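Predict structure. Chain length: 111.
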Amino acid sequence: MGKFDEKVALYKATLEGMGMQVNDDLLTKVTRGCGPSIYNADAEKVSSSDKSELETVKNNFLIGKMGQADGANLDNAIDKVIHLFGKGNANKYRAVFYYLLVKELGLEGKY
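Prediction complete.
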């Protein structure tokens, strides 16, 4: 198993640990879309206590990559994903965070 496959397996286990059913194909595509950030311990995670980090998620991923219009629905989706992880959870993996945003906003067709 290569490093990429190991990361996808880790993210899948994280989602399953949250009680989620996982769409393997979508998770693989979202993980691939994160690029090399998944191999950097700091960049691999989303800091939900850092407002600028959450703005980056919204602006770069949801608006820039996913083509969404800025609005309260994006902020609400981000808040819901943070709640799903649990505010105290330090392991908010970026690929899992993005996967949950895609599912929450019904953007599976964009992949």
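Summary: The longest helix spans residues 3-17.
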